[in-house]
Amino acid sequence: MTQDAFVFVLKESEVEITAIRAQGAGGQNVNKVSNAVHLRFNIVASSLPDSVKTRLLRMNDHRISADGVVVIKAQNHRSLEKNREDALERLRLLITTAGKVKQSRRATKATYGSKQRRLSGKEMRGRVKRLRGRVDE
Fold first, then answer.
1. What φ, ψ does residue 19 adopt, rounded to 5°?
2. Residue 2 has what pLDDT?
3. pLDDT one-digit tens code per residue, 47-88
4. Read out DSSP for the chain?
5. Which candidate, 32, 65, 89, 108, has a CA 20 to 30 Å from the CA of 71?
6. 90 with 74: CB under 8 angstroms?
7. For 11-50, b where at least 16 C-beta lie within 10 A, e where not — what string?
8. Is-contact 101 3, C-beta < 8 A?
9. Residues contacting 23, CB < 8 A, separation 6+
């Protein structure tokens, strides 16, 4: 049984992207150029289906605040545009992960043969351990 991939469209109006200064080493331009990106996405106000919103809000992810806002900071690349694409891709991945419904576990019963094999293995192991004891004369 295959599961269909969750398909969604991120509206530009729902995503707030701000250019900020990147941290760390970067040479002469590091304190002058805003190359990092701060992405904010309000889950509650978004146009995502309610089931996906609920799963997103229940996720234990440090990027999701208590107010239901996803905050992603991207500063891996030197260009603003690449960092913007990186942040959007990470948001898409987060939403896609929440869009997948976990398949419930079906309880199964161990077969008679598997029980017998398990018990005979335990019996043989016990026999080996008994033979390790002190030898009486």
1. -85, 130
2. 46
3. 888 888 898 898 888 999 999 899 999 988 888 899 999 999
4. ---PPP-----GGGEEEEEEPPPS--GGGTTT---EEEEEEESTTS-S-HHHHHHHHHS--TTB-TTSEEEEEE-SSSSHHHHHHHHHHHHHHHHHHHHSPPPPPPP----HHHHHHHHHHHHHHHHHHHHTSPPP-
5. 32
6. yes
7. eeeebebeeeebeeeeeeeeeeeebbbbbbbebeebebee
8. yes
9. 36, 75
pLDDT the model gives residue 1: 40
Q: How much is the pLDDT for 73?
A: 93
**Amino acid letter, 88:** L
Q: Given this model, what pLDDT does residue 12 score?
A: 83
What are the tokens at 37? 């990106």
Q: Cβ of 64: how many Cβ atoms within 10 Å? A: 19
Who contacts 54 (Cβ-Cβ below 8 Å, separation ≥6)? Answer: none
